[in-house]
Design a protein that fits this description.
The complex is a heterodimer.
Chain A (H helix, E strand, L loop, with lengths): L4 E10 L2 E11 L4 E5 L6 H9 L6 E6 L2 E2 L10 E4 L11 H11 L4 H14 L15 H13 L5 E5 L7 H18 L2 E6 L2 H7 L2 E6 L2 E6 L1 H6 L4 H6 L4 E10 L2 E6 L2 E4 L11 E6 L5 E6 L12 E10 L3 E8 L6 E6 L11 E5 L6 E3 L1
Parallel strand pairs in A: 3-8, 3-9, 6-7, 7-8
Antiparallel strand pairs in A: 1-2, 1-4, 4-5, 9-10, 11-12, 11-14, 12-13, 14-20, 15-19, 16-17, 16-19, 17-18
Helix pairs in contact in A: 2-3, 2-4, 3-4
Chain B lengths: L1 H4 L1 H4 L3 H35 L22 H39 L5 H10 L9 H10 L6 H25 L3 H9 L4 H12 L1 H17 L2 H6 L8 H7 L8 H31 L6
Helix pairs in contact in B: 3-13, 4-7, 4-10, 4-12, 4-13, 5-7, 7-10, 8-9, 10-13
Classes of the chains: A alpha+beta, B mainly alpha.
């Protein structure tokens, strides 16, 4: 069973640069939690603090009720997979996996049993005798994962473990990692800057920015209801504009190009104030397809524009639409079947449901 | 116009010029090699000569017969001291390498407050001339009961070797990814286990470099050998070689043969391990 992890008001600075600032987390046993954010946001430092590889300036770390803030990493009972695998080059795959067990002075038979089991789990039975330089990147990462699991740690830390791999192997290993985590009921803290990866693999995601926690939530929550401007910008594709809120017939609206779109703000917004309006490409509907000559009447509650680019992405097709009076094209994602007859140069109207537009003050 | 520019008609040929400069370079290299090997040549051929053919005017001439010259006598005189040198050099080189490895490991991978100052102080030892510390050295050896013994000489060389060995190992370990140490710690290994199970096996190239360096340095030392050890049989070969220079007459064939014999171990070490030495010096200077 996985461990319970509590991080309370954790802070760490390097010289005068604050890397982690008052970070608090509560991770349930068996949960897969991702730390997501751009480079330099403090996600790896947070992970290293949890691992004990960095010493916290402030705050505390509690694993299964035991305060470990100042406990050295070798006594925290956790596993870790590094970005560059960090396999011991002088040891074979077998010996790498056996390392943690031998350090703990387990019997030869127990080491052999456990290593055999792990080699089977990561499908590397035939590579046991090979040295790291004789293994492919994907195989090395599997060995690193098996090594991290060898001592059966209740908490597994992964620092961008898939970032150095090809896309196909990355997808395969990601699925395998998730399967293993569920099977072993491990608590996993996973650091990544790849939001698609975090979405695909996590129970919850912690969005980090400049050393602080920006938002914590399930992938669905973060995608549908990003709480901050940063989360809204960082997660998923979106159309974003700085605009002003005005009341029309008592209803709040925002201007977007020459159109005025009705919105339902998620909080109190003062008329006339500048806000960031964000909507997802798939939230819009191409509600009318009109020949250019037919577009005459003003349609203030919908965006009207010309398709600049049609990009086929398999199940969906992405349109880049130059909206009247707007400087940048907006993105609209349609199911490919529905977009089959669209082509660049066509003029269309794009309707965005008011509740699909999120407003950030 | 074409004939002016044509390399064939003008006599100008880049290929011919390149070949010419190559001959010049090779010529210079051969001359330099001969210059450096000349003393070795003189030592070997005069060591092989019979005493009666040994003259200053004929020192470049080859021996008339191959009877062994001064080598049998030189071996008889020097062999106890060659063994004494080996008995002293091997443990001193191994111990100073090991201590240097431990220092290098701690100073590069387990940094602590003040570790850089300690490293600077250790390096300072490299720049202290032997002569400057002779009196306190002998006082200290006397204090610990090792003055006059070859074991004291081992201790002196171990301590004097620590700075350079620490420097080489520290630079080597700095280039070993810290993630390896971190991974070992996460897996439950402490400082000592990580050193012996991971870092030590990885540091073979550094060991070769430090080993050769120390072996050569300690073997060639004369000053500590002559001041620390009393017994002629326990003194290193460099001291014994010097003692061949008698007060009345000198048998130069024996002296030359003895010089060859005393230089042989370091030459052999370099001949057989030299490629590892170069490789070890380069290790860590390049990634990939």
């Amino acid at each position: 069973m996985g461990a319970n992890l509590q991080v309370r008001a954790l802070s760490k600075a390097f010289d005068n640069t604050v890397a982690v600032d008052d970070v608090s987390l509560d991770v349930s046993p068996g949960e897969f939690l991702s730390l997501l954010g751009p480079s330099g946001c403090g996600k790896t430092t947070t992970l290293r603090l949890i691992a004990g590889l960095e010493r916290a300036d402030d705050g505390e770390i509690v694993i299964d009720g035991r305060e470990v803030t100042n406990v050295p990493p070798q006594r925290r009972m956790l596993g870790m997979v590094f970005q560059q695998y960090a396999l011991f080059p002088n040891l074979t795959a077998y010996e790498n996996i056996a390392f943690a067990l031998r350090v703990r002075r387990q019997s030869k038979s127990e080491v052999a049993r456990r290593v055999g089991e792990l080699l089977a789990v990561v499908h590397l039975e035939d590579a046991a005798g090979r040295y790291p330089h004789q293994l492919s990147g994907g195989m090395q990462q599997r060995v690193a994962l098996a090594r991290a699991l060898a001592a059966e740690p209740p908490l597994l830390l992964l620092d961008e473990p898939l970032s150095a791999l090809d896309a196909a192997i990355r997808d395969e290993l990601r699925t395998e990692l998730r399967r293993l985590q569920r099977q072993l009921e491990l608590t996993v803290i996973y650091v990544t800057h790849d939001q698609a990866e975090a979405m695909a693999i996590s129970d919850r995601i912690v969005v980090m920015d400049r050393g602080t926690v920006n938002q914590i939530g399930s992938p669905q929550e973060l995608y549908d209801r990003p709480a901050t401007r940063f989360s809204a910008s960082f997660i998923g594709a979106s159309n974003r504009r700085l605009t002003t809120v005005e009341l029309v017939d008592g209803e709040p609206t925002i201007s977007w190009g020459t159109a005025r779109l009705p919105v339902t703000p998620n909080g109190a917004v003062n008329p006339g104030s500048t806000v960031l309006a964000v909507w997802r490409p798939e939230a819009a509907a191409v509600s009318a397809l009109l020949p250019e000559s037919a577009v005459t009447a003003a349609m203030p509650s919908a965006l009207r524009g010309r398709i600049e680019l049609v990009t086929f992405l398999g199940p969906i097709t992405r349109l880049d639409v130059r909206v009247d009076g707007d400087d940048e094209p907006v993105l609209v994602d349609l199911v490919s079947a529905a977009a089959a007859h669209l082509e660049a140069g066509q003029v269309i109207t794009v309707t965005v449901p008011p509740d699909a537009i999120r407003i950030y003050t | 116009m074409a004939s002016i520019l044509s390399p064939t008609t003008s006599g100008y040929s880049p290929r011919r010029k390149s070949r010419f400069s190559r001959y010049v370079i090779f010529g210079l290299l051969v001359a330099a090699t001969l210059f450096y090997l000349a003393p070795v040549y003189v030592m070997v051929i005069n060591g092989l000569k019979d005493k009666s053919y040994m003259t200053l005017a004929g020192m470049w001439n080859l021996p008339r017969d191959l009877g062994g010259g001064g080598f049998p006598v030189a071996w008889e005189v020097l062999s106890p001291n060659i063994w004494a040198s080996l008995r002293m050099v091997i443990p001193a080189a191994i111990l100073s390498s090991l201590l240097g490895a431990v220092n290098g490991y701690l100073l590069s991978k387990w940094k602590f407050r003040g570790s850089d100052i300690i490293f600077t102080l250790i390096l300072f030892g490299m720049f202290i001339p032997y002569q400057a510390i002779l009196i306190p050295l002998i006082r200290t050896l006397d204090l610990v009961g090792l003055y006059g013994s070859w074991k004291g000489l081992v201790m002196v060389h171990v301590i004097y070797g620590i700075p350079i060995a620490s420097l080489i190992f520290r630079n080597y370990f700095t280039n070993v990814p810290s993630e390896l140490v971190e991974a070992a710690r996460i897996d439950g290994a402490g400082l000592i286990q990580t050193f012996f199970q991971i870092m030590l096996p990885l540091s073979l190239p550094a060991f070769v470099v430090v080993g050769i360096f120390q072996f050569t340095n300690i073997w060639n030392d004369f000053l500590f050998g002559v001041t620390v050890v009393f017994s002629p049989a326990d003194q290193p070969v460099t001291v014994a070689l010097n003692n061949l220079n008698g007060t009345n007459s000198v048998d130069w064939t024996v002296v030359m043969a003895a010089a060859v014999l005393s230089a042989l171990p370091t030459a052999l070490v370099y001949i057989f391990l030299g490629r590892f030495f170069i490789r070890g010096l380069l290790a860590g200077s390049m990634k990939g």
